[in-house]
Specification:
Blueprint (H helix, E strand, L loop, with lengths): L9 E6 L2 E6 L10 H16 L4 E6 L4 E3 L4 H4 L4 H19 L5 E5 L2 E3 L1 H8 L2 E5 L3 E3 L13 H9 L1 H10 L3 E2 H7 L4 E3 L4 H14 L2 H14 L4 H14 L4 H11 L8
Parallel strand pairs: 2-3, 3-5, 4-6, 5-7, 6-8, 7-10
Antiparallel strand pairs: 1-2, 8-9
The protein binds coenzyme A.
Length: 261
């Protein structure tokens, strides 16, 4: 996979069909200023154009995933500027959420505010035992502005989301896992290997089925049950007649490994 990006604060690399996107601003604990938000968006555009079948997103250095939106930058903003910043964060998180392949957050350290929200927009979250997560905005006199008030309750339930947001609590990886905020916790030096394994496994799955499953699950958050079931029926039926459907079922019947597209 051919993957290049001309950016100072975000690095991309590929391994097979997996793209790795690294927020690379360690002197600011990978906080997302406007430039870095734009570079992240460009990185996901590049991964999509290259046909990535899975993406890993993580932070450079040993202590932070993403320490949040850039507080220095926000401290000077007026309401119109804050609105534009919120829109930029929303656009990026929507892009991640709608990326046509699974995106895994490798939460290698601090994930506060906008960093937690970036992780929330991913399909899966794997945390290092050193990770600390939180929607800490209230203690800055604001509220989450990149999707936290909407995605956190969907993921962890209303009560836990209210507690995390109201108290601005910083939770360690074990508590995050108990809340359902991350899917699993691994030893710090095993994080990259575990996430790479998950991504490589997903990249071998039938691409169209995985994308359809992601879109249908996303739809469950945006529609009533009848609409969601109608979406699922159309999605299910639409995969019949595809190469991967015929191949997957033939391989089962012939007791062999499938060769997906
Ligand atoms: N925005 C801008 N700069 C940030 C930042 C952020 N969200 N988080 C950390 N930084 C900067 C610090 O200002 C510091 O810069 P300096 O070296 O010029 O002083 C540098 O990153 C290192 O951070 P520091 O606080 O010295 O590291 P620490 O290990 O003592 O603490 C944290 C790390 C993450 C606990 C602490 O930085 C923190 O609480 N950050 C804010 C988290 C937050 O509320 N994020 C939500 C924003 S919406």
């Amino acid at each position: 996979m051919d993957l290049t990006l001309d950016a100072e604060t975000v690095a991309v690399e590929s391994s097979g069909d997996v793209a790795r996107v690294v927020v690379d601003r360690p002197d600011r604990l990978n906080a997302l200023n406007v430039e870095t938000l734009g570079a992240l968006s460009d990185a996901f555009d590049a991964a999509e154009a290259a046909g990535a079948r899975a993406v890993v997103v993580t932070g450079a250095g040993d202590s932070a995933f993403v320490a949040g939106a850039d507080i220095e930058h926000m401290s000077e903003m007026d309401p119109p500027e804050a609105l534009a910043y919120a829109e930029a964060g929303h656009d990026l998180c929507r892009q991640v959420e709608r990326f046509p392949a699974p995106v895994i957050a490798a939460v290698n350290g601090y994930a506060f505010g906008g960093g937690c929200e970036l992780a929330l927009a991913c399909d899966l979250r794997v945390a290092s035992e050193r990770a600390v997560l939180g929607q800490t905005e209230v203690d800055l006199g604001i509220v989450p502005g990149w999707g936290g008030t909407q995605r956190l309750p969907r993921l962890v339930g209303d009560e836990v989301a209210r507690r995390l947001i109201f108290f601005g609590e910083r939770v360690d990886a074990t508590d995050a896992s108990e809340h359902g905020l991350v899917g699993e916790v691994v030893a710090h030096d095993e994080l990259d290997g575990r996430v790479d394994d998950l991504a490589a496994t997903l990249a071998e799955k039938p691409r169209h089925a995985i994308r359809a499953a992601k879109d249908a699950i996303n739809a469950s958050h945006e529609s009533d049950l009848d609409s969601g079931l109608a979406y699922e029926r159309r999605t299910f039926a639409g995969l019949f007649g595809t190469h991967d459907q015929r191949e997957g079922m033939a391989a089962f019947q012939e007791d062999r490994d499938p060769a997906f597209e």
